[in-house]
Each structure stands twice: as C-alpha cells, then as structure tokens.
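Summarise what follows for lecture notes:
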Amino acid sequence: MKDEKKKRFHIAKKKDIPDLTKPGVALEIRKKGKKDSDMPPKEPEIKNDTVFSWDIKASDGKKTNTEKKRKIQNKTIRKWVIVSVCAAAALAAYLTITLQTYTDVSVISQEQEAGTGRSSYARFDENILRCSRDGVVLFDTDGKELWKEDCQIQNPVVEVNKESAVVTDSGGNSILIFGKKGLKGEVQTELPIERVAVSEKGITAVILKEGNTPSIQCYDAAGNLLLEYKVSAVEQGYPVDLALSPDGTTLLVSYVSIKDGNPDTELVYYDFGNKDEDGKYRVGGKTYEDTVMPSVYFVSDEKSVAVGDGGFVLYNGTKPKEKEYVKISKEIKSICYDKEYLGIILKNTDKAGYELKLFDYDGKEVISKDFEGDYSKVKIEKGQVLMYDGEKCSIYTDSGVHRFDGKMGTNIKDIFPLKGINKYLVVDANGTKTVRLTK
C-alpha cells in the first residue's frame, strides 16, 4: 500500500518549493491519472507564471485588507498634496495682496449725509459715532442708523473707551455720556470745559477752566457728581491733560509749571477711594524737570503712558511706579495710540521728511519708517497707522508694510479700516463711502 502511494505522489524537495507568500507566484500540483499507472512518476511542475496574487485578490474576487490600506494611503497622499498646493497658492496670493503698496482706490458704495461738514467722528466698538450741531448719531459701517440723540453742541469733542463714549462742547458747558444703546447721562457745568476723559464704565473726568484755580470734577455714568478737586496752579502747576483707568478707580493728571524759566511736568495718580497721610488721594507719580508732557492715557488698569517733548514714560502697578523712560532726541510732530501700540511722528534733522516709529508697551520699537509729505492728522487703528491731509493718505501696517500711498479722491475728514481685504470707510463733507485699495 505504501508503495502504491509512493507511485501516485511525488514529494518535492524543500529547496524546490517556492515562497508562496510572494506576489505573482502560484503552485500547481497535478495528480497522476489512472492511465499513467504504468508510467514512472513525474516531477511536479512548478509554474512561475503570474496567475494572480493572493496579496491582491482572494479566490472569491474580493479586495484584501492590504489593497484597501494601500488605496487609503494613496488617497490620503493625494489629498495632502492637493491641500498643500492650495495652501501655497493661497499664501502666495495673500502675500501678493498684503505686501505691496497701493496707489489708488475704487468706490464700492456711498452714503450721502446732510450736515456732515462740521461733524466729528470716532470708532465706537464696531460702529461709528458721529457728532454734529444737530445731535449724536451711531451708525454701522453700512451706513445704517442705529440710534440718534438730538442735542445742541457747537464744538463737539469725542472721547471713547470701549463700551462708553463722552461728547463735550469744547469751551462750553455740556457733557453727554453714552453707552452702546444710547444716552446714559448728561451734565451741565458752571465753568468752561477744557479737557475730558472717560472710563470703560462711563465714569467721566473733566478739567474746568477758572484762571489760576482750575477744577477737576468726576461724574458717574448717569451724570451725578462724584467729587471735585480744586487745583492751585501757582503751587502745583496747571493741569494740561488727564486720564481715567478703564475701571474708573484711578485718575492720572499731568501738571505743568514754570520754575526758573524752565517748564517742569509733574505726573500725579489719584485714587479717590483712599486718602494718604496728608489727607490727599495721591497714590503715585513723579516730577520731570525741563520737560512738558501734555498727553497721558491708560492702556489698562495697571499700565499707563505719558508722552512729552523728550520721549515717553511707562508706568505700571495699582500704586503706579515708573517702569521705563524711552528718550527720543528728535522733535515730536504728533502722536497716536491704541491699546497695542504708541505711534510717534518725528521730524528728521539730517534729511528731508519725517520718521514714523511704532512702540509696544514694553518700550520696544516695533517699526521705523521714513516718509515724505506733511499730514495734519494721524491715527492708529486695528494695527494700522493712518495719516491723511486733504485728499492725500498714507497707511502703514504694524509689520512695516506701506499699504497705501496716494489720494482718496476726496477731502478726508476721517478714515476707518473695515473687515475684508483692503476695505476702508472714508468720511468726507458729503457723507461716507466704502472704498477698496487698488493699483
């Protein structure tokens, strides 16, 4: 029996057995038929012809997990290649748009408004506040009126601090305190108004003119008098500017006095909720000799700035102390600021033109750019320095890109950056128009 089985089958040597795990290899072993019983056994034939790969297809024709994984990998690779190409194209387009200097504008839309010739404008959150002799109006960037308050103000001055705004009549006696939804409080002063400041909470401080004894008064958002502080200009100096912390708890005043023919500036911080040993409310400050600092403001509750003819000084803390004094040798022509940067326009001494310097509130210089031309107005908003005069306008970004240098086609009263690529709202004597920068 054993001999008979040996005649029917032939066992291949191990070295002759192919590796069946390799793709493209199939093994065929033939069983000897009855008619060949008298013939000697044949060696099994090993066929290396590619019949199919069981790595690719199973006997039932279904795809194996290996093929599915390979196809998923291929799809993933193709997807990321497409994404990378699209991202590169988008980045190239973005850089092309943002890194070049535009010289012209195209008008997208225009809103005609009567009586805007003597109006003052200010950004109030994402909307625009317009103040004129006819009243105060808040409208959105599409020109839609949100609310209006009728009033009689001859020379409107606007100050905004996030959620609160105050409108005063410069040299007059009217103070209007606004929130986002409209009028919150109104004050009539007995003395002429010289300077005004407002906190985020709507607390308002004013300097009232009265010869050598000016008065500093503070009001809550409803217009109620909180305190009055009499100043002796002979002893302390004359208050030239003031600012309130966002929470309304700290007041900063800049006093200028003349001693031995030279001007000195004393910065004084008041916390009217606490009295010091002398029965006063002073919680910090310092005197700067031979210097005039006519501009002061708060960046946050614990950070404030004073700008003068020799540079600017940074203060920190709830009991404010000088952090850094950044000295500038060139003549300061004008300044602008927001919660991120302080911009200073300097007059060049060794060459024609001016220099724009932008600083952060650690005293670090962010950009320095030379430019030609005189601009009577300068502001900083949404990371852009906007300088304009008549039809002329020049715009720099906080990364140092000269975004625009040309004419707006109208006498600019004010200009505001808008959402979208290179879009701006331009205010002129006839109303507002939305423009896009072009080449």
